[in-house]
Design a protein that fits this description.
Layout (H helix, E strand, L loop, with lengths): L4 E6 L6 H14 L4 E5 L5 H11 L8 H25 L3 E5 L2 H11 L4 H12 L6 E6 L2 H14 L13 H18 L4 E5 L4 H15 L3 H5 L2
The structure holds adenosine-5'-triphosphate and magnesium ion.
């Protein structure tokens, strides 16, 4: 679509998605390349409202179907309002979670039938796929450790409970789901060992992108 580039970042909680998008953005800015940074759920005004419902700790009784539709609703808005227009303008779009997250969490994690998820992803995206996806692979134990440390740093320790011991099995399923997705689409999905330090992971991200595209082209116009 246009001459834009669409890259997504995936992985379990605490695997370093947000950290890596920020490091990549800093790197690109140093090269005078302006990227569009966005995330799911959210990325739009309406999508952010949907995000609030999804992340609200009080909504523990949410069914897996409701969850799936809300993610899809947010994605539909996001595609139309942000991703498609940016790609048409020839921009570089970096998105924190996308369709693979729905397949990993709702499909492999919660057991929602894959066909249903594929269908909703197709409806929401109109078939638009990322050109490249980074999967930060990490054990749920380490992801949990990092998430806890981050929450502590941010003074939000009371939320620690959401990633509880019995949930470790859930996050293990999600991790394996992501690995399955990567196996099915090795051309698109690049698996990176996220247990390495963030500088090493960053180098691998940059290497992959620069191998695939001549980014200079994206810098000059902006
Ligand atoms: N390679 C790394 N090694 C050690 N710590 C890291 C690494 N990458 C990120 N961290 C730290 O781990 C914590 C979680 O990282 P980050 O927020 O980037 O993960 P995330 O994948 O975006 O998580 P979430 O899905 O919850 O948004 C942060 O405090 C971050 O500084
Ligand atoms: Mg994050």
């Amino acid at each position: 679509m246009g001459n834009g580039i669409f890259i997504t970042f995936e992985g379990i909680e605490g695997s370093g998605k947000t950290t890596q998008i920020q490091l990549l953005n800093d790197y690109l800015r140093g090269k005078k390349i302006q990227a569009v940074l966005t995330r799911e759920p959210g990325g739009t005004r309406i999508g952010d409202q949907v995000r609030q419902i999804l992340l609200n700790q009080e909504n523990k009784d949410m069914t897996s179907g409701c969850e799936l539709f809300l993610y899809s609703a947010s994605r539909s808005q996001h595609i139309k309002q942000v991703i498609e227009p940016s790609l048409k303008k020839g921009e570089l779009v970096l998105c924190d979670r996308f369709c693979d997250a729905t397949l990993a969490y709702q499909g492999y994690g919660r057991g929602v039938p894959f066909e249903m998820i594929d269908h909703l992803n197709q409806l929401a995206t109109g078939g638009l796929k990322p050109a490249l996806t980074f999967l930060f692979d990490l054990t749920p134990e380490e992801g949990l450790r990092r998430s806890k440390a981050r929450l502590k740093k941010e003074g939000k320790e009371k939320r620690e409970g959401r990633f509880e011991k019995e949930e470790l099995a859930f996050h293990e399923k999600v991790r394996m789901g992501y690995q399955e997705i990567a196996k099915k689409e090795p051309e698109r999905v690049v698996v990176i060992d996220a247990s390495k330090n963030s500088g090493q992971v960053h180098r691998e991200v940059v290497d992959r992108i620069e191998k695939k595209w001549n980014l200079k082209k994206y810098g000059t116009n902006w």
